[in-house]
Design brief:
The protein is α+β, with helices and mostly antiparallel strands. Helices cover about 20% and strands about 20% of the residues. A seven-stranded mixed beta sheet has the order 1-2-9-8-7-4-5, covered by helices on one side. A two-stranded antiparallel sheet has the order 3-6. The longest helix has 16 residues, at about 170-185. The termini are far apart.
């Protein structure tokens, strides 16, 4: 998409794990975790520090929820606290997702298996929204469950978290569209005003 970028490979732990200060000069950080997760490799302080300073993060990986969201009985502080996501199960066992109506990827249908992509998804996580005031689902698996959550409303930072590997999207044009919408949304100026209305009383039982 003709964006200028730097690449930071993490091959040796803990020596090559970046710090929050390493990430802060960048407008957007894309964190790809094909077989691990930030907390799992000891980078939870990096993520929380970067987002606390107003960072914009795109996090993608099929085991991020399983490894950092309590699938292995470990809940990294950034997972619910900053991503506003909840781990549901380790294997959605569904390979097609649709953008949720009225949100970032509305109108898009993607497939995360087969030729054309990395074809490396064995156990894509199913997730849910932890804080509906601050976050919303952006991708849903066909047949049920969510595969993507964005967090931004009334927050000083923005995150987009896909619980599958972005690299596995099998259609090049669809990959380009997902990345283009993601970068545009992450880099956009924050809203200057917002309004939320909650009724003082709600009817829970009424006539049929």
């Amino acid at each position: 998409a003709a964006y200028a970028y730097d690449e930071w490979p993490i091959r040796s732990l803990p020596d090559e794990v970046p710090t929050a200060n390493d990430l802060l000069p960048y407008d957007v950080v894309i964190w790809s975790a094909p077989e691990d997760a930030p907390g799992y490799i000891g980078a939870e302080d990096t993520v929380t520090g970067y987002l606390s300073a107003g960072g914009r993060l795109f996090l993608t990986g099929q085991d991020v929820g399983y490894l950092d969201g309590s699938g292995l009985s470990f809940l990294s502080p950034y997972y619910q606290g900053y991503l506003k996501a909840v781990f549901v199960q380790d294997d959605a066992d569904i390979w097609t997702l649709e953008g949720t109506l009225g949100d970032l990827f509305a109108g898009l249908t993607i497939t995360i298996t087969g030729a054309g992509g990395a074809d490396n998804q064995g156990y894509p996580d199913e997730i849910a929204v932890y804080d509906t005031d601050a976050a919303a689902a952006v991708f849903a698996y066909q047949g049920g469950g969510y595969g993507g959550v964005r967090a931004s409303t009334c927050l000083d930072y923005r995150t987009l978290y896909l619980s599958f590997g972005f690299e596995a999207i099998s259609d090049r044009a669809a990959r380009h569209e997902v990345m283009s919408r993601t970068l545009a949304w992450l880099a956009a100026a924050p809203s200057t005003a917002a309004l939320e209305l909650t009724p003082s009383t709600q009817t829970h039982v009424g006539p049929p």
